[in-house]
Design goal:
With about 375 residues, the protein is of the alpha/beta class. It has 13 helices and 14 strands.
Length: about 375
Amino acid sequence: MTYLADAHLPLLEELELYDSKLNTQSTAALSRGSWLQLKTLTLASNRMHARGVQYLVGAHWLQLEAINFNVTELDGSAMVMLVCCKWPCLQILGLNNNHMRHIGEMPETSQCSLLKHLHLHASNLTDNSLQQLSKPRWSQLETIDLSNNMLYSISALVQASWPALKAIRLDGNPSAADAMAHLSKVDWPSLERLYLCRLWLDEVTLLHLSKGNWLRLKKLDMCNNEYPLSSKAISHLSDAKWPLLEWLCLTNNGFNQTSVLMELSNADWPLLKTLQISLNNFEPEATSQLARAHWPLLESLTVSFKVVDGTAIKSLIKGNWPLLKELVVDTTTSSSHDPFVGWDKQRLQAWQNVEEGCMQMCRDRWQQLESLELPCAQHISAQLC
């Protein structure tokens, strides 16, 4: 590493040292590198520890824009050092898969005033460490990833001064239901993307969430919830005033009530383009409720039912979605169970004709359709072969 640091590379802009067996001594040598044009540094999967970071933050890399410390065994003290580092152009800081359980006292004013993207996925963050993390006033921060940590409460986020924040990931945290009550109070006027997968959301949670004043929200991901969500919960979601919402994922949320689709179809989201509600357990007659929805810009729809028949498809094609390009209709029948086992060839052929007729109706109904998947065709084709 000494040879690299002493090398005359005045135009070096990008340096990748992924899994390079760096230790404290080699990191100290690296920090002496006189690379005045260095913009991107990748140090992922090395055993850096906080001492290594202590050497690095003294490096005179005034043009540095992105640094990757993923999987480097850093702790909370390293986080404090990085926030105080003198890299005025730093915009991207990657700290995924580290040990940030205890973060020391963080300053309100950070030297990284241009920081835009902060990645802390699976870094053992706790409620206390989040409280420290929320102190710096990152006026340019656009995205932050807090997924798969140990956050039970997110009340500290209410104090966070991140006016330019566009996206936040909170997936996979053990947050209690009242956490959304705090989330709905945050002042992030630029928020566009919100990720809330694998959480403990319920009716009360969604009531709070729907009060979020995020007029620019475009994407909401709420897949794989730990609780089955009721139609009342979805009614709260449908009441949310998010006029710019374009993308919504409610996959695998334990839905089985037709009233869920009725409530969802009442939502006033005129710009909605993508809706994913697969891996749920709707009855086939629920398609008529979904077809009521007024989403004139809808381009992609993925939905699943207990079973799907010709009547269900005929109800679905009443949907007034002239721009629809992708339709995936699935069934929650186990992939190992073939519903057509035991049918004779004549009966299978008749059903295949129905299936083909349904597919043609879909194509006739939606002239922009590019991708169409119906659940029965594969089973029938396998039996006929």
